[in-house]
């Protein structure tokens, strides 16, 4: 059996700073029946080294476990896990993944149906549960029922379970503070994909400085390690009829590749009774 951990936030798509740990009863069972776990980044693999065949052992699991499932704690060493993950901002429970609650399973081919060693990837669906584990490092549990290791014909199908977490979506706010002698005609924030931030508004920061607030408006972006299409701060010069022959000549790049949101900072406001979640970023000229 293998359990794969994926997270949209990370560039490689694999979840970092997360490990699985069997709960006490499950670990005791592993020790008794010679089950050994191997764990690397994003993958938890369970191996059987007992005297019988894996298939016969899997068929007897219900009896050996007294109808209890295998339970694994999800332990995160990332303090900002709740920020980068698509979770309710005011939620403080724990995650639950169960082999009884899965996304639609792929239909096996005829050759797989005839095979006793077929491999199948099953995606477990995230459920939000009240917190039952006091340890803050435990963000959730994975529950695997032994009957889900077998096919309808009670053959071992060597399943691979997958957990896929989405990254949090936020609006982006850039606060541009001009501490230089530059007097740009008109500032704009945009990227190569043609996304343009709203016209800036003059605001006063908490330290009393004046700034231009650029908002992404209706656009939301998934938090990520790096941004594939970064935003740039440009100065737009006044229109000149002669510049029509030279497209883009009225655009001056001021900052290429603006900063991306920090994972330890999230701001929330109420707009028309709804939560508006945004990532504030500060840019100084």
Structure report:
The protein has helices at about 25-30, 55-60, 60-65, 80-85, 110-115, and strands at about 1-5, 20, 35-40, 45-50, 70-75, 95-100, 120-125, 125-130, 140-145, 160-165, 170-175, 185-190, 200-205, 210-215, 220, 230-235, 250-255, 265-270, 275-285. With about 280 residues, it is mainly β. It has 2 domains: about 1-165, no CATH class; about 170-285. Strands 11, 13, 14, 15, 18 and 19 form a 6-stranded mixed sheet that branches. A 5-stranded mixed sheet has the order 3-4-1-10-7. Strands 2-5-9-6-8 form a 5-stranded mixed sheet. The protein is elongated.
Domain count: the total is 2
- SSE order: EEHEEHHEHEHEEEEEEEEEEEEE
Residues in helix, %: under 10%
How many helices?
Answer: 5
Derived from helix and strand composition plus strand pairing, the structural class reads mainly beta
Number of strands: 19
Low-confidence stretches: 109-117
Q: Major β-sheet, in short?
A: 6 strands, mixed
User: Compute the gyration radius: what is it?
Assistant: 26 Å
Mean pLDDT: 87
Give the overall form.
Answer: elongated
* Percent strand: 35-45%
Terminal CA distance: 55 Å
């Amino acid at each position: 059996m293998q359990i794969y951990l994926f997270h949209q936030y990370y560039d490689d798509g694999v979840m970092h700073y997360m490990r699985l740990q069997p709960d006490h009863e499950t670990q005791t069972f592993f020790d008794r029946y010679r089950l050994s776990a191997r764990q690397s980044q994003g993958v938890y693999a369970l191996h059987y080294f007992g005297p019988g065949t894996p298939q016969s052992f899997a068929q007897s699991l219900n009896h050996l476990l007294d109808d209890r499932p295998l339970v694994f704690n999800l332990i995160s060493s990332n303090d900002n896990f709740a920020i980068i993950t698509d979770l309710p901002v005011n939620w403080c429970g724990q995650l639950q993944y169960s082999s009884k609650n899965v996304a639609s399973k792929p239909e096996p081919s005829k050759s797989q149906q005839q095979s006793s060693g077929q491999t199948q990837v099953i995606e477990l669906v995230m459920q939000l549960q009240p917190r039952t584990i006091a340890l803050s490092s435990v963000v959730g549990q994975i529950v695997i029922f032994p009957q889900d290791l077998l096919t309808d014909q009670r053959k071992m199908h060597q399943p691979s379970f997958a957990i896929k977490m989405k990254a949090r979506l936020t609006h982006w706010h850039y606060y541009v503070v001009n501490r230089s002698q530059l007097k740009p005609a008109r500032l704009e924030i945009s990227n190569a994909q043609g996304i343009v931030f709203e016209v800036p508004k003059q605001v006063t920061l908490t330290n009393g400085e004046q700034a231009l607030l650029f908002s992404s408006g209706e656009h939301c972006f998934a938090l990520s390690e790096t941004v594939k299409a970064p935003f740039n701060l440009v100065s737009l010069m006044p229109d000149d009829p002669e510049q029509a022959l030279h497209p883009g000549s009225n655009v001056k790049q001021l900052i290429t590749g603006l900063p991306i949101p920090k994972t330890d900072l999230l701001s929330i406001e109420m707009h028309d009774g709804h939560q508006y979640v945004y990532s504030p970023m500060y840019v100084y000229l």
